[in-house]
Structure formats: structure tokens, C-alpha cells
Batch of 4 targets.
Target 1
Amino acid sequence: MVAERTYIMVKPDGVERGLVGEIIKRFENKGFQLLALQLLSPKREILEQHYADLKSKPFFGGLMNYMTSGPVVGMVWAGKGVVKAGRVLLGETNPLASLPGTIRGDFCIDVGRNLCHGSDSVETAEKEIGLWFPNGVVNHERVLDKLIYE
Ligand code: IDP
Ligand code: MG
């Protein structure tokens, strides 16, 4: 029913700290639909593509080390306004600027250990979904949708 999708990723610190379930719970509670989920240890090449726009930043090397330090959990979530709402659930890039009630606001401190990723636009989301789920993602009809959407 709802076509908008976003790519949400629990970063290595979030996986190591056992926060995968907590992060999934927040998206489930809101009413968004989980379409795909995988745990994998990402190679540098995929991360260089994922973070291509940050390549010239001084923190890029540190970001690559952080993101290759352990497995990540990547997910595709669907729902009305899920790209923007997903970023609201995550909080600000800098966890210290994130309000309590957001994932980053509740669980972390440093920008270089900010637990999670969320696509920043519908266009980026589709690009990221294609990158991380090259075999495609199937949309599922959900009976529950009539209780979530008017
Ligand atoms: P976003 O994750 O909120 O979209 P981006 O600006 O796209 O933020 O940056 C991607 C990731 O790079 C951030 O989530 C964070 O892990 C890392 N990052 C961004 N800015 C800094 C910085 O100033 N120092 C260290 N790491 C940073
Ligand atoms: Mg970003």
C-alpha cells in the first residue's frame, strides 16, 4: 500500500551493545513495516560507496575504521513518510544534540559512535537499498495497515 522506503542500519557499536532489538522496536512501535533485514560484516568498498559524499572529510578514515569494526544490521523499513520520520526516530547526527526519546539521544554521546544510520532522502534511500540489497526487496501486503492508516 505504501511505497516509501528507507534504509536503516545499526552500526557496529549498536550491534555490539545489543541495541538491535531496541532500535527495531522503535520502528515497529511507530507502525512502520519491516521489509528486509540482514547482519553482515561490510567490506570497505561498499562503505566507500555508501558514504561517497563524505570521502573528502577529515573524519572519513575514522568512519571507515568504525564501520568495519564489526557486523552491522541493515534493514529496509516502509511506510508513509518513513524517510523523514526514520531520521526523527534516530535523532541528530551529533548524539549530544539529540533529544531524549530519540535513539541517539537516549543511547550515545559521540558523533563517531552514533549507533545507527538512516537515509536522508527518498532518492538516497532507494540508492542505498539497491546497494545493500542487490538481490532486491519484496513488498508485502500487510493486513495491519488498515489499523495504522485512515
Ligand atoms: P547522518 O548519519 O546523520 O546522515 P552524515 O553527515 O551523513 O550524518 O555523516 C555520516 C556519519 O559520519 C555520521 O553518522 C557519523 O557516524 C559520521 N560523522 C559525521 N560527522 C562526523 C564528525 O564530525 N566526526 C566524526 N564522525 C562524523
Ligand atoms: Mg547521512
Note: The pocket of magnesium ion (ligand 2) is lined by residues 120 (CB under 6 Å).
Target 2
Amino acid sequence: MRTWLLLVVAFTSVCGRPGSPRDAGQGGVRKREFGELTELGKIFRRCRDKTTPDLSAKDGLARCLRKHRVAEERSGREGAKKGRKSKNSHKKAVTCGETYYMKTGEKRIFRVRANMKVCAIFVHGDGRTDLEMNCKTFALSACRKEYFFVQDQTSEKQFCGNKGPGKMTGRRALYLLYERLRRRRRRPRLWCSIEGVEPGGAGSGVDDGHGASPGVQAQGCGNVCGQAPAGAGASRIVGGEEAGVGEYPWMARVEISLGGVGMACGGAIVTTTHVVTASHCVDNEFLEITVKAGLHDLSSYQENTTQVIKAKQVLQHPMFSPMTSANDIALLTLEAPLRWTAGVGPVCLPPDAGFEGRVAVVTGWGSLGAGEDFALRACLRAGPHPTKLNEVAVTITDQEMCEEAYSSSVFSVTDKHICAAASGKDACQGDSGGPLVLKENGTWVLIGIVSFGRGCALKGFPGVYTRVSSYDTWLLNSIASGAC
Ligand code: 4AZ
């Protein structure tokens, strides 16, 4: 972690994680917090997580819902429509409680009528079709009165008031739930079209209607990813400095040993058994890899908070090129699961968005100063390395400018990279594999993995990171189902 002014300011606050869904109290009767799931929402989530969205599991979701009496309510009008061919049969209103498998070109309408109390539907692409949802009309009462709940295979979000979901594309499945909790004066206005379209590779994650969607998480994990103590990151953007203890719970130290020689890289925890790092850090089949989570100070080992687990599998991206550094991403599978604690937790995978001009944070135990020579991708080099985890705030640069800066380099920058820079601040030797994160709608998402760069904090040469959103699908497919 290179900083121009080496301002290493001790930051002593050991923060808890207020508001984290993981910390939500259990049992007893208490008011539902904003955004927290209702009982129905929880059943809904359970049904989603239990059911794989392949066609062999056809109707599994609907059956699960019926078992929990969620799909019972079918208004006479909607029920009567079932099976009847409408004049406009490609553009049909949905029936509450149904599961739909949509072909390309098919369209359904989810709308809320004034007398509706609850309505849940499941929509899947038929395997060769992506789903697009567009809510053209959205005006509900306050969340304590009614809400619209949208899940896809990896994320979920609740909407109420006038803030509906934005246009959502590239979904393989959508689970929609409207629920009226108490009387409301306002007539609900909710009209969403769901359309089957040719797969187009757009990102996943439920959109909040503000452009980019929040983070993506492995299926069935609930919303535990991307939670950090309040105040983490952005407030302390002056030079690089020591991170707070437990400030970045997804930060992992990846220790690599080859025939007794040790190196270290950074890594990002994404599930209890998976850590994302750079492929160049683990590019040898004889490595022994140990992951340390919850670690802060390398010089005073924190036995109580640090979890040390060996990696049992290393999955390098199949198209990784050590020559050009293309596809510099790898997924480590741990021998045993990590325990989520205040200082150890997962980061979310990112939505597919640009991020240019946004401020992000990179963390690591890498070098505090480096020469201007082209930084080869050794994970740990001699030189001043901090013993405490450092953080640095950097701005995502213009993509074209970065591609141009590295155009004559063998390590070329493509749209599968993301670049970040700030005057006198950068990732450096030893930071490789570490996370570049930013906070998206209250959730921290992993937008980059430290990959390479010319020197460190060298003017005109931003730090280059593997663009994680380009690998969301690869990661999600590589994370064994059930891992969370
Ligand atoms: C490295 O060798 C390294 N300034 C990481 C990041 C950068 C340079 C070198 C970017 O691990």
C-alpha cells in the first residue's frame, strides 16, 4: 500500500456491526425493522433457497409456497382466468401462486388490485431465456402497511412508497411478492411487465431503482454479504492509513508456501469456504495455501479473532495468462468453513456497472513504497511492509484513459479490468489479490482484485484490478451450491 505522505495514523475504534442482518435478534415479539423480512418474506426466501430453478424442479417453489399457505390466496377473478386463452395471449396478467416458465417473446403482467392482500408468483426462464422486469407504475403506501418484495437467484430487496424497482435485466428467475400488512388509505398502484428475452449477459442482483443494483451473493446465502461497521471506508480519505480493526471483515491474508519459501497476497472472503484472489498469486500446482481471516496486526497475532484455515482447492480462471495477466482471478476453497464474527464476514459480488469516478477502497499489507520500475507480479517483496492492515481510497479512472496508458505494455488493460488511482496513493507489491471495494446502496461490493500496475502511485499509471463483475457468473458457478 503506497502512500505519498506516509501518514500512518493509528485508528483505534473496534466497531461492532449495528444493523447487520446477521445480528438481528431472535425470538420474542418485536417490531419489524425497515427492510427486515416479514414472516411471509422469510417463507418466500426459504422456498427459493430450497428449490433449484431447473426444469426438473418444476412447480417445486409453488408447492413449497402452498405448503406454507403463501400461494393459497387466488382471487376469483384471477383464478377464473387460469387456462382461458385471452385475446392478447402473449401479454397476460399473472395468477397469484403460479410458477411460470417463460419463453423468449412471452410477456406477463404482475399488477396489484385494490382488494389484494397477498400475491406471490415465480417466473423462470425456460433455460434459454433471460427475464426482464419493468415496473412502469409503482406507488405503494409506507413499508409498514404494504410492500413489494423482489428476489432473483442471488439477491432480494423490498420496495414500498414511491420507490419501485428500476428496470431489471438478465435474470434467470424472479420471485415476486406483494403483501398488504394493514389498512392503507392510498390505492396501491403497481404494474410490472415480465418479459422473456434472448440471454444478453446483463448482471444479476435486485435493482433498487437508482441505476446500479446492489451486490450479488451465492444462492441461498441471505443478505449477509457486504456488511461492515458503520463508518468503514470513505470517511477517512487522506493518504493511506491503518485500517480499523475489523473494518473490512472480508479481508483475508493468503499465505503461500512453496518448498519452505513463503509469500503473501490479499484475498476477499465471499462465502464461509471461498476466498477470491489473483490467479498470479497461486500460479503453481505445488503451493500450500493458508488463509487468515480476521487478522489485523501481523506483529501481534490476535489468537481470539483470527481464523486460520488451509485451502483445499485452488481454481485458477481457465483463461488466466501469466504472460499478459489476463483473467487474473482465482477461487480458493477452504478445508473448513469460516465462522462469521464481528471481524470476519463476506463481501458481495458486484453488479455489472461502470463505477467510473466513484471512490473505492483498497486494503492490504503490501509495500508502503516502491520504485518506479515496472512492478512484476511478485506477491511479497523486500521493502517497507506495514505490520497492520492498511487502507487507501482511490478513484475509479476513465476506462479509455487507463487502456491507453498501458497500451504499449505486455500487461494490457481490457474491459475486464478496472483501474483506480489517486495522487500518491495506490496498491503496491504485496497487495496483489486483495480487494478493491465500494459501498453500493449500503452494501460493500468487491469491484476489483489487485492485479498489476506500473510502479506504485506513478503519475499517469493507475493501479490495475481484475474487474470482478466480468467474472460473477464464473464465480457463482464455481462456488459449490450450498456454500454460503
Ligand atoms: C504487486 O506486485 C503490485 N500499483 C500490485 C499492485 C501494483 C503494482 C504491483 C499497482 O503486487
Note: Residues 375, 377-379, 426-432, 450, 452-453, 456, 463 surround 4-(aminomethyl)benzoic acid (CB under 6 Å).
Target 3
Amino acid sequence: MEDIRNLEYRELKDLVASFAEKPYRASQLYLWLFNQRAVSFDEMTDIPKGFRQRLKERFYISHPKIAAIEVSRDGATKLLLELDDKNYIESVIIPEEKRTALCISSQVGCPLACKFCMTGSKGFIRNLRLSEIINQVFAAERHIQLQSNRKITNLVLMGMGEPLLNLEEVTKFLNIAADQSGLAFAPRKITVSTAGIAPGIERLSSGAMFNLAVSLNATTDEVRSRLMPINKKYPLKVVLDACRRYQRSRKRAITFEYVLIKKINDSLADAHRLITMLKGIECKINLIPFNTFPGTSFNKPERGVILEFQKVLLNGGYAVFIRESRGDDISAACGQLRGKLVD
Ligand code: SAH
């Protein structure tokens, strides 16, 4: 049995054809599954019973299983989701004044092993399927519907994992999320965050107008390779060239994320190098003071150092924001998700 929500529209069309049903049944199925968020085939009353019965023999519709909910002092809510194979992933609902973002995981664990990231220190298990990515949205939507009258307004693929190493399922997800007959989010409210998988950035540029965020985190290859082993494969120049090409294809500002770690990448020389490196790319910079986790030897810089770093970049003409990570007290902040992986 397969979860039918792993099938994108094209695959639903093939499925409908293989059952010798009328082609428009694919659109009906698609609407029920992704737009109406159906939880059973029985709801699909405009689809003939016989066809529904045959679908039920081969497919099921999975339900997100929330195994635990933690609410932070600052209002961020972390959902621990149990997958059918008993793996766990985390998603974080981040309410802000005018918007509510959902931080979505793309993999169980992460293969990149960035030294400052707790998810990375716990290893990689597997890629998520389309249905497992979508179920995070449904789980969060239902959860906040019960709690408040808020709605999820923004989706950020910034949770556990590297989205561009699960490109096939992530691309399907992005297309359905931004499709007005699918999850119906505006593409400009959807952000993909990557550690800099250059070929993935290239492939992403052929899609809709999603926001791209790139985790830069250092200004020399030497330091970046030490922090992020993936830099040996895709060094700074290669990543930034991919960003430039991405930008040319869509004329949209790129977000650069920069985790500030005490005495590692927080010098004024770093700030000046950053200005030079990013010349010619229309962008904004998010500075994320390092979030600690058990076993790390890194620290967050002093407040004054963070503000000085920001000032240099502001004077360099960039839009720079200090992103205080939300949900720090419940390990829901950037780099603190681990989805209950084996300790
Ligand atoms: N793999 C993707 C998405 C997951 S990481 C990526 O690298 O972008 C999401 C963001 O959290 C990245 O910008 C990453 O640099 C940041 N991050 C990871 N660990 C962190 C930590 N301990 N403190 C602060 N930010 C961290």
C-alpha cells in the first residue's frame, strides 16, 4: 500500500489513465488531496464509489501523527511528528505580529554534518517523501486552528535536513504548495534554505518565484570548510556564482544567513570581506547569533560584537537583520532540531 499523497498531479494523471477513468478525475483527486486536505477517500463524494473503492485497494491517505508538542515562552511551537516507519521529525510554528511561519523539515537527520548544528551532529537517516513534507503543513494547520484563529502564512524549508539534497520530493512539494489548486500559498511566501548545494540552486531557478536563502556562515573557504564540510565540494565562489545566476533568472533578492560564532567568524575583517564577497548580488543578510546545544564548544558572541558586525554591513549598504532565534528554551531554534534521533 502506498500513500496516495506521494503522487503529484502528473502521476495522478497516469494513475487515472491506468484505471481507464476519465482524465478529469485526476484534477478532482488532486483538489481533494492537496487543496481540500481530505483525510479519507469517503469524503470525495464527486468521485464514483467504484473508483474510490479501487483506489482504496492500492492506496491509503496518511495522517500526520503528532507525538509531542512543546510551546516556547516566546510562542514558538515545536511539533514532533512520528512517521510510519517510527522515525521522528520536527516542525516549528513561529507566530509573529503579522504572519505565522512554519519551519519544515526535508530529511530525517542531515548528511551535511555542519559543526555548529545539532541536527548535523546526529547523522542522516533518510529523505522525506512528498506526503511526509505535506503532512507537516496539515499537522501545523490543524494544530493552530484548534489553538487560535491564526493561519500559517509562510513556509520555510529550514528545519531538519538539506532541502536541495532531496530535490525531487522538495520540488514536488514546492510546486504543490505554490499551486492555487494545491496548498495555495503564494510563491513569495515560500522560502528554501540551503547550505549551498550549487547544482540544486541551478535546478531551482527553473521553478516558480520562491525565495532562496543561502547559509553562508563564513567569509573564507578555510573557515567555511571547517564549519561546513560541504564547502569542500561547493566552495564559496561556486556557491556565489550559482546565486548570481539564480538572481539573473528571476530578479529577486536572495537572503544570506550568517550564524555568528564567537571568535570563529565574528571579526570585523569578516564583516568587511562579506561586503566585498556579496557585491553585485541583490540581497539581505540575516545574522543568527549561535544557538547552543549540549556538547558544542562554540559560543554566541557578546551583544556588542554582534551589533558592531551588523553596523559594518549596514554601512556597506546592506539590509542586515539580527535574527533572534525563536523557541530556544524548547530546542526549537535554528540548528537545535533533532527529531528525537537516538542520543
Ligand atoms: N540545510 C539548510 C536548512 C537547515 S539549517 C541550510 O543549511 O540552510 C537552517 C539554518 O540554521 C541555517 O542557516 C543554519 O546555518 C542555521 N543554524 C544551524 N545551526 C545553528 C545554530 N546552532 N545556531 C544558529 N543557527 C544555526
Note: Residues 69 and 336 are 15 Å apart (CA to CA).
Target 4
Amino acid sequence: MKYDVVVIGSGPGGYVAAIRCAQLGMKTIMVEKYPTLGGTCLNVGCIPSKALLDSTELYHNASKHFPTHGIDVTGLAVNWPKMMQRKEKVVTDTCAGIKYLMTKNKIDTAIGHASFASAGSIEIAKTDGTSERIEASKTIIATGSKPANLPFAPIDKKRIISSTEALSLAEIPNEMIIVGAGVIGLELGSVYARVGTKVSVVEFLDSTIPTMDRTMGKELQRSLQKLGMKFYLSHTVKAITSDDKRVALVAENKSGEELKLAGDYCLVAVGRQPFTEGLALDKAGLMTDQRGFIPVNEHLETATSGIFAIGDVIGGAMLAHKAEEEGIFVAEYMAGQKPHINYRAIPGVVYTWPEVASVGYTEEELKQSNHEYKVGSFSYRPLGRARAANESDGLVKVLADKRTDEILGVHMFGARAADMISEAVVALEFRASAEDIARMSHAHPTFTEAFKEACLAATANRAIHS
Ligand code: FAD
Ligand code: NAI
């Protein structure tokens, strides 16, 4: 069978690319090696983690915050199997939605492992042992990523686990060790800390979420400590050992002092690595770089003409919405359009509570590049809405060009930051100045007033409520 496009991988990169290709009139097939569509994000990433974050946040609020609001609850308990079942149903329904979208857009799907027979020819090995070969004028590789391992303590999926296993534990652990204070470590650490697990996080660098603006890491750490999470920053993990029931970790701080921790599980969350196993890239004239990513040019085209790659497998921010933008970009480029992605305006969110959300440059990046900037910060504390909601733990930080006032970066920590960051994305896309935002009316009382106030603070320090 000859197609215009074959998409390998059904994650947010692959399925969105397939839909856009079909919308643009291309005969499209998407190949996925797992029986359910949706990739890491829908099956073992964004969706199940957010389902558990939402469930455990409700429990945490009911137990810790309802009394403050004058709501008395008795007999409150976590029904863990039911919480897991709900999460599974959310995943199943969301994955089914992708199947529906494929049918609706007349996209063929094949379940099986895809590999290159040559450029333009793909072999699909199915689980029943049969195989099928398809030809396509263009190929989009969207094979994603997998969890990175510590070389001395490989993930055994029993006691030394990755996010995938941590999303489906049969029981609530008493103690959990987490290696890595990045996004996965803090989101899944929150899930378990909220239901009573003693969570200890060991991080190599001197900050949590170290790639984000450092103010955010400090605020978030303080807040998660209140939840009971313990942090061991600037620690090098030396060994992780386990038996049937327990796991032990040895680490060392910068002064050489030894840290010993024990727990029921050790979640290794030290990043993810590109996945290209079994693709036979060489048969299409392709190679990965030293870190395993597929190199692409500014059109996301690989070294072989007509073969494109998108999403986690090409590096950059490993985010679902970044993969989606790249999927649309490639489809439109192949159709002769002139798409554009502004990578600086792709937001990043940590779905803890309070949430962290960021877009644009961090203060550390601006300092490093000697870019002259000014800062406007505004705390949630004086906000009427934050007081009404009992959510005063928050901060918005705006970084603007010192000379032109153009907004260069926005960093938010607090309730609803994940949704509020969209306004900052619009500001960056339209190259707004802090003055522009400061002069726009923001509904009262809302959390968004903190963004306006931070912009007022950035323009000659004229915040009203501080
Ligand atoms: P993937 O989603 O990894 O999809 C790749 C697909 O390709 C997989 O289904 C795989 O089976 C398939 N495949 C691979 N090789 C072959 C082959 N040879 N033949 C056929 N099929 C193949 N990002 C966010 O933006 N927001 C979040 O809240 C968020 N939460 C996350 C939580 C966790 C726990 C994890 C692990 C990740 C999270 N991410 C989140 C990251 C997000 O999941 C990824 O960035 C995103 O899934 C990348 O999309 P992709 O299409 O590039 O690849
Ligand atoms: P990460 O890159 O966010 O964090 C990994 C952390 O581990 C870093 O802080 C790093 O310094 C630390 N680390 C690395 N090696 C270590 C070692 N040997 N000992 C101790 N610490 C070590 O990666 P993470 O959390 O695994 O997530 C993977 C990817 O998934 C991320 O790129 C992220 O973008 C994506 N993701 C996104 C989410 C979101 O958008 N909300 C949620 C979860 C994952």
C-alpha cells in the first residue's frame, strides 16, 4: 500500500501530525507498537499523573483545608484501588478519544513495531508474528522517549522504579525515596506525600526544578517541605540496593558526608532519553547523535530528504505541547506552507500544588548572556481572591528588557499558575511590554491580578497593592 505519509508513533507528536496531514489532504497511516494510542503522554505520562495529582489534591484539601473553610468532614479515607481505577478509566477514555480522531480523519492505523526497510519503505512487525510492508512518500518519526537509568542501579520495575511503575503501585508505600528533584520527582512525590508516604528526594544539583528560574525552585521546595517532603540537595547518589521488600540508597554531599536512606520503593526520575530502538535508522541513511537524539534541520527534516522527526526523539523541551507544535509544523511544511514555532514561547508547568509555570528566559539565563533586564515581582498575599480562596502562597515574577520594557520571561508560583501562564505566552508571542500588560484591565478578584501587578512593579515600581 502506498501512502503520502507514514507517522511512526502515536504520542502527542505523532497523532497530532497525522491529523494535520489528513486535514491537508494527505493519505496518512500511523503506526504504534502498543495496542493503545496516545504514547507516553496519554498512557504513562501527562494524563495518569494529572489524574492522580487531582485525586490526591482533593483528599489533601478535604483533610487539611476544609476545616479552615468551616467544612467538617468525618470518616475521610483514601480508597487507593478506587483512585487507581479512576485513573485507569481516565487513561482508557482519553486513549479511545485518539482512536476516534483517527477514524474521523480517515487515518489508517497499524499496531506493530515499525522499522525502516529503506527510506520510504516501512516494515511493520505485528504481535501475532506477521508483518506488513508499506510505502510512503514522506515519513515522520515520532518515537518519543523512555526513562533514563542510573548506570549503577538499573530500574528493575520492582523496588527500583520509573514513573511508569510509580503511576500504578498496588499499595500506598510507607516510605519512598526519589532520585531527581525535577518535574517527575516533585509531581509524583506530591502524589504520595499527600496520601501519607514519607517522601525523601535526593538531587544532584543545589536546587529543585533546577532548569527553571531559581526563585521558583526555592518557593516550591518550601511549600513541599510543609507537605512533609524531605530534600537532600547537592547529593551524589553512590549506590541503590534492593531486595524483595525494601530498597536502600547511599549518597554523599559536597563535604563527603554520607547519607543513608531506606524505603519501600526508589523512584528514579533523572530525566528521559530518546527512543529509537529497533527502528533500523541506518537503512534509511540516518544516525542518532551522541546523546541518542535524531538530528534535524530548521524544517525538522532529517539528513535523509522526506524523513522528518518531531517530539522527544529530537530533544529540546520534552513536553507534549512542544511535540504537538512540531507535528503541525511538519505537516504544514510538507504541504508547502511556511509554519513557524517560537520555542521561547513554549510554556513549562509543574503540576504540584501550588503550581509552577514559566515561559521565556529565566533570570539566570539573562544574567549569563549579559542581557540588561529589570524585575517586577508580586506576591499573592495582598490579592483579594487569594485570601478568599486561602491560597496566599504565591508569587509572579516578570523579567523585562531594561531599555525597551519588552517582556522576556514570566515565572509564576501559586494557585492556578498553570492556566494563568497562557496570558504570559500571548504577551511573549506578541512581544508585549510590561507597560502593555500593566495597562490592561484584569478582572477583580482573580489570581491574574498578580500578573498585572508584577508588570506594574517592573515598570518603575508602581504596583498598587504592595
Ligand atoms: P511519546 O509520547 O513518547 O510517543 C511515542 C510513541 O511512539 C509511543 O507510543 C511508542 O510506543 C511509539 N513507538 C516508539 N517506537 C516505535 C516503533 N518503532 N514503532 C511503532 N511505534 C513506536 N508533558 C507535558 O507537556 N505535560 C505534562 O504534564 C507531562 N507529564 C508527564 C508525566 C510523566 C510521568 C512523563 C513520563 C512525561 C510527562 N510529559 C508531560 C512529557 C510528555 O509525555 C512527552 O513530552 C510526550 O509524550 C512526547 O511526545 P512524543 O509524541 O514525542 O512521544
Ligand atoms: P528532569 O530533567 O525534569 O529532572 C531530572 C532531575 O534529576 C534534575 O533535577 C537533575 O539534576 C536530577 N538528576 C540527574 N541525575 C541525577 C543523579 N544521578 N542523582 C540525583 N539527581 C540527578 O527529568 P524528569 O523529572 O525525569 O522528567 C523527564 C521529562 O519529562 C522532563 O524533561 C519533563 O519535561 C517531562 N515531564 C514533564 C512534566 C510536565 O510538563 N508537567 C511532568 C513530568 C515529566
Note: Residues 150, 179-185, 187, 202-205, 210, 237, 269-272, 318-319, 349-351 surround NAI (ligand 2) (CB under 6 Å).
